[in-house]
Each structure stands twice: as structure tokens, then as C-alpha cells.
Amino acid sequence: MSRAFAVVRPDDATTLLLRACLLDGDKAQNAFWEWLDRVDDPFAALRSGPWRAKTVLPLLHANLRRVQCRPDDPAFRSHLRAANERERLRTAPHREVVRSVLDTMAADGHTLRLLASGVLAETAYPAPELRHCYGVELVVHGHEIEDVARTLQRVATPSPDDASLLVHVTTVPIRLRTRIAPACFSTSRPDAEFVSAPDYVYGIPCLVLPPEQMLVQICTEAFCSGVASGDVTWITDAWFAHAAAPELDWDMFTTIVDDRRLHIPVATILSYLARDIGLPVPEHTIADLDRVAGRASRTERDLALSFVWPAARRSIGPGSRKRLAPRVAMAFARSRLAPVPGFLRATQDVDTSLDLVLAYARRPLRFARRHVPFLRRRQTPK
After folding, report:
1. Between β-strands 173-177 and 136-139, what pairing exists: parallel, antiparallel or unpaired?
2. Do 77 and 154 meet the contact criterion of CB atoms below 8 Å apart?
3. What 8-state DSSP symbol labels residue 75?
4. What mean pLDDT comes out for the span 294-316?
């Protein structure tokens, strides 16, 4: 089963590029030169590769300067400088947007709970412009959404289709989240209670995730949504989140994973970070998570397969030479067509035996409509 989850891991070339962004000294230099040897055209690899690696160009520029590694191609050096300057110019106004949102909420006495990306850019990365950010994510209790949304209407417009989404006057999205993990991984406690560590962001007192919960959050977001879009910022987020908290309590980290039954997502992501990138994770932590993930229930496995299926489709999409191994393809097909009952109960409104029968009856037809061309519904011309 672990081979099916391997699709969430970036390819070897992207891994080398990320090592060049993060490591020190000769390790970073060697990774960069090996990456250049691996790709035929570095510009094309950054522009059209399966992973959105161009978002880390400012970080690559900064780290190559730090380790005194100078690319031979002057065009590539100019490309790095331009990417760094472009991100620096867009970071300042984005920070002003976030500050205006926080000031507006604080003025009405709302508790400010910020999620990872904006917090890490300000508190963990060497400089805010080294982490591409777009949007503001706030964690609220379910009963707070209406009040918070009403307050934010001073600086943003609510979405007509989603009560938890507003759009700032500068078009930056503001997301109000009641969950920090998918509902199937929820606990009895409201997720907002986990955002409990006091900190100052933009000079404003806020609540953020404690370091252990932050790393769990990064791994979970990567597995459940980030890899589907080819995002790689979760790798640099994890690196700098750990660097900002070198005394991280790994026993507490494991307890958080146990409480939410996140063993498969976290074990998959953390093993890649440790073994391929070089994140200093105790070997016993990875071994313990791998062991429990290997004994996960069929419901947990089908849930995990559903999250990585988009990444699997992307990895074998048009123009890709990659193909899924037969056993991996069969695992995905079975999970899409005939998942275990626990999966349907966790993801759909399935309360009775009849609901379960109907849910199973609909799945093959839905699968066929998506993947068999002549069964797809024709789009009505506009």
C-alpha cells in the first residue's frame, strides 16, 4: 500500500532543487549542480514541470548566495534575481492586507487565530519574501463565522456562494476555517482550540499553532491537498517550522497524530522530509508512525487513497511517461469503485442500509462519467 502513497513525493529532480534551497555548504552546491545536470532546460523544468517549483526561486536565489554558489549561465542568474525582486515587491502590499484584516478583527475584540503560511513567512523564514503567500486563513469557532464575517465586511466582500469566504478590496481571498484538518480526521474538540500558542505577527498579538501541531498541520495539508496541485511550499514550510523550534517535542507530535488517526498522511510526508530532504527527525518517530500506518484500518486506507488520487492522476497525465504499477492502479480503482462502508459513512450522508446500497450503486456510474469519454455529459454551449 505504501507504493500507492509514494505519488505524493516530488520527483528526483524537484527533490534536488529543494535540497539546493535548504541545505548548507557543499550539500546545497552539489544538489544544485546535480539538478542542472538532471534537467535538459532549467527554465522549462521550472515553468512546466509537474511540481510548481518556480515558487521557491527566491529561496533558491538566497541560499545559493549564502553558500557562495554562482550559476554559470548569466541568463539563469538574471532569472533568479528577477524572481526574487518580483516576490519582494508583491510581499509588502500583501502584508498590508493581512495587517488590515487583523487590525479590523482586533478592533471588534475578536480572537485572532492564524494558520500556517502567513505565520511561518513572518516568524520562521529568514525573510517574508522567501515564502510565496496569497490569501489570509483564520481559524474560528462555528458559531463565530457570522460575527467575524460581518466585521470583515468593512474591508472585504462576502462570497455569495460560500459563507466562509470573503474577498478583500485588493482581491486577496480571506478564508474562515472551522477545521484545520478534513472532517474525517476531526476529534471531539473544536479545531479552533488547537490554535492556542500566543505570538506576535505583524506586531499584533495572535494565537498560532504550537510547534508540534504546526508540523502535523503542514504534513496533513500537504497530503490532503497540497500534492494534488503540485505545490512544494509544504517542504520549505516544514523545514523552517522545525528550524524555528529545534527543541520540538516528538512525543507530543506523535500523540497529536495518534489522536487524529493521521498516521498514513503524516508518516508518508515525514519519511520523505527526513530521508530525501534531510529534515532531522528521530528515526524511532518515523519507525513508530510507519508501524501504526501499516496497521491502519481499511477505512483509513481508503480515505488516504482518496486524498492522493488527484496527485496520482496528475503524475500520469498527458505528456507524462510515468505509469502506475499494476497493483497500485488496482488499489486506486478498487478504492474509487468499491470503497469499504466506513469510507462512505465518513465522507457521505450514509445513515441507513438503503443509503449504503444507493451510494455503492452510484459510484461506478459516476466513475464512468468521469473517465469514459463517450459517457461524459455534454457541456451545453454558452
Report:
1. parallel
2. no
3. H
4. 86
